[in-house]
Amino acid sequence: YVSRVAVRVSLSLNNFKFGKDKIIVYYILTHNKLKTEPWLNDITQAARRECRKAERKWEKDKLQVSYDILRDSWHKYQKIVKNQKSAYFAGVINDNCHKPRVLFSILSSVLNPPQSNCTEASAETCEAFLNFFVEKILSIRAHILPPSYDPSVIFTPLAIFSHFEPVSLFKLGKIVTQIKSGSPSDVLPPRFFKEVWGTIGPYIQRLINSSLTLGHVPVIFKQAVVQPLLKPPGLDASLLSNFRPISKLPFVSKILEKEVCSQLQTFLESQNIFEVFQSGFKALHSTETALLRVFNDILLTADSGKSVLLVLLDLTAAFDTVDHNILIYRLEHHVGIRGTALEWFKSYLSDRSFSVSLGKFHSSSAPLPCGVPQGSILGPLLFSIYLLPLGHIIKKHKVSFHFYADDCQIYLPLKHNDLNPLRPILECLKDIRAWLALNFLNFNEKKTEVIIFGPNGPGVPPSDLGPLTSCVKSIVTNLGVKFDTALKMDKQVNTVVRKSFFQLRQLSKVKPFISFCDLERVLHAFVTTRLDYCNGLYIGIDQASLSRLQMVQNAAARLLTGTRKHEHITPVLASLHWLPVHFRIHFKILLLAFKVLNGLAPSDLSDLLHQYTPQRSLRSSDQSLLAVPMSRLKHRGDRAFAVVAPKLWNKLPLHIRLAPTLEMFKSLLKTHFFSKAF
What we know:
single chain; 678 residues; 5 domains
């Protein structure tokens, strides 16, 4: 059976090779030119040649008529370049208007050409990266000391998943449209692959279904091409340790992984196997919902008069050190994967290899005896399964926690009358370290951060935090948001304002070349999304911080409309139909409340809101009202999602609360806030 699958792979790839030579020629013609501005083309080059021709004529005879011809040619050339530049930006914006990340990447590369990741791309550099990545993982695993005990909790799967269902050609077609990238080793680039899907689709369907039913993954699907990524940008590119390995897998293997991921997720959701407080790579979950739940718990605890200790754990190269045997055990005994489905996962994890690519240079290949690829579709889900026991260990100590992929945070109220308030979290950390070591995950104490929040101001660190004493910070970055000990969010606001004004300065450079509508799209992608990210955490912040955020929106409106600095901005915002920042924050809170009430939000947020049920029959019983919990402090409990969301919700007109769909609710809510704002 294994050989049959391998033969089908070869046959399918041979069918692709009919266009390989043409693709190579196309690649050489389009990529082996000197790097130039992307909007320069044959039209601009022809106009430039006319300028040079007129320039040579004027330099030769120095006549006034020749000078006039040169000046006219130069003006014509500048006009053509501006038109081509405008056409280029319009095309980029139209093609990526719903993909802010792609749009940001393209425009940033044009406005600020990136520096090369390496001082020199060569085969020797590729080999150096290959050896570094291999030695790094081996070194991490070698330095993990096995603990003296096992804190794991015993699992018993409630259901069995023994085989994958065959996939239809129609579903595969939808999957192909969703996948954006492939591997440098692909015979066909992804966009060409999609164009000829009608011809090669049946071949791919037979290939995918053979793999699923026979429980085998062809070796060619397990050969990754790693492209080192300097992260974060701006670090010293001469240090290999500043690079993160990003795996590029073959396009067809991603199709296979997408289908396996879909069927596995359906099974996990039906059996409630997912960890409730794991927000990474799950439908309806995001970093924003994760932070909103953590922030809510911290505010309510502080409102009750207790301090809160938050620990942000750092795991070094967590995806790369996953042990394959342990992962297979987890799939079989914790999830309930058996039969050909289990054989498929064993085949998927075995005989994996990778090479490093830098431009046109490549390294040799090296085996991957451990880890799940970060660039794969299935890798993040498998990592979440790998971490399943960790949540149960933390719950055993009655310590609150939240995961987002490999970002782990635990937090605990500190009781002032307790003789040893840190005992639960220190014992929990001891078990976490032991479990991580048993599972070949490296707990990096040097990068682990601790922050303490007080009930009325900055939290005072206890006299003895044990090994965490040196980790205490006054400001920490949690999933991209800065938390401060006073819970003012002013450091986060400072960061948002600084980065937003930088983007506005950059966008002012392209304003002359793009239309009004295109500039508005770009402003929303670059600036408004930054203002809106996790803005539910801004509820109740001081007016000074709120005014600074509003200044950013005002500046964006002035850039778009050309409004002068001292002109009144409120009519401009009204004409643009832009809700002010204050109302955007309320909009986000109410939007999440609607999602909670309609089953469109994570369960950890849904647990915070409850329908109002009066003790006796009242007219308010059918008003779709929410119960409002009690709180004491304006800057603590009143800002918690569990408190502020019901308060805002109950103030809405009834017809908005009873909106039948999400789109209708958003439309009615914006109209309601717009009438209040202007």
